């Protein structure tokens, strides 16, 4: 689905599907690449060890990872910040952007909400569940921090006003999404997922605040948008 505004817009959003196998099953994540002028902004960095996979997708799209100028993190979770430290280490000039709330955990200044939640849930699990729970906790503890260079909040405009930051709390407290009015497009992070052909709340059982998650989903649905770039569902057209 295209429109004249999108065709003439200096901003382009590219879906970067990454398929991988875990415990014998296939999974996928979909970071987004924003092209503006001659600069690239990567939205979320996948699991630990995914740097080369993401860079490979960037190359497949006809761009070079050395063109990266910014990395925007929608929220703190292992599948979103897992390779952030690696990207910063390889591309030290890249500017890291996140909301103020998420930035403290990303930088390792505070224990993340997800780790606190995992530790709390552990005491309620049976032994089989607890084994997986302990493994997840150790994975979270192994995540390497990275300092955030620029803080954003709801309503901020980036890329000369073409991109609007939306506070979409619920999945985590400081979760953000990105709205591109002229493109009629949204990068949702984990504020949405596609289920049975409709936008839905992603993993409601792990939302930090389910009421906020529902409100954030309603906000995303209310936008004048026809294309949603969804981290665990790919590109959704409505």
Question: What does this protein look like?
Answer:
The chain has helices spanning 4-7, 51-60, 78-81, 84-90, 100-106, 113-122, 127-142, 210-222, and strands at 11-15, 18-22, 25-29, 32-36, 39-43, 68-72, 95-99, 150-152, 157-158, 163-167, 176-180, 185-189, 193-195, 198-200, 227-230, 234-237. With 238 residues, it is of the alpha/beta class. The protein has a 6-stranded mixed β-sheet with strand order 1-4-5-6-7-8. It has a 6-stranded mixed β-sheet with strand order 9-10-11-12-15-16, with no helix packed on it. A two-stranded antiparallel ribbon has the order 2-3. A hairpin with a 2-residue loop joins β13 and β14 (198-200). The radius of gyration is 17 Å and the shape is globular. Residues 1-5 have low confidence and may be disordered. It catalyses: 3',5'-cyclic UMP + H2O = UMP + H(+); 3',5'-cyclic CMP + H2O = CMP + H(+). It holds the Pfam family Lactamase_B. Residues 29-232 form the Metallo-beta-lactamase domain. InterPro entries: Metallo-B-lactamas, NDM-1-like, RibonucZ/Hydroxyglut_hydro. Counteracts the endogenous Pycsar antiviral defense system. Phosphodiesterase that enables metal-dependent hydrolysis of host cyclic nucleotide Pycsar defense signals such as cCMP and cUMP.
């Amino acid at each position: 689905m295209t429109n004249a505004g999108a065709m003439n817009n200096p901003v382009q959003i590219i879906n970067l599907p990454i398929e991988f196998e875990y415990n014998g099953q296939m999974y996928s994540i979909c970071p987004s690449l924003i092209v503006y002028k001659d600069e690239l902004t990567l939205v979320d960095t996948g699991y630990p060890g995914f740097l080369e996979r993401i860079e490979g997708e960037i190359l497949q799209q006809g761009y070079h990872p050395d063109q990266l100028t910014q990395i925007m993190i929608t929220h703190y979770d292992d599948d979103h910040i897992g390779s952030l430290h690696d990207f910063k280490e390889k591309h030290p000039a890249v500017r890291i952007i996140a909301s103020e709330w998420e930035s403290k955990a990303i930088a390792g200044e505070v224990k993340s909400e997800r780790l606190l939640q995992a530790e709390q849930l552990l005491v309620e699990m049976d032994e089989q569940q607890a084994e997986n729970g302990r493994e997840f906790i150790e994975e979270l503890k192994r995540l390497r921090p990275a300092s955030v260079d620029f803080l954003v909040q709801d309503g901020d405009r980036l890329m000369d006003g073409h991109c609007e930051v939306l506070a979409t709390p619920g999945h985590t407290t400081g979760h953000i999404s990105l709205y591109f009015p002229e493109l009629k497009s949204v990068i949702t992070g984990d504020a949405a997922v596609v289920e049975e052909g409709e936008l839905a709340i992603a993993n409601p059982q792990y939302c930090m605040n389910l009421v906020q998650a529902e409100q954030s989903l309603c906000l995303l649905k209310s936008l004048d948008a026809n294309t949603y770039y969804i981290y665990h569902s790919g590109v959704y057209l409505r």
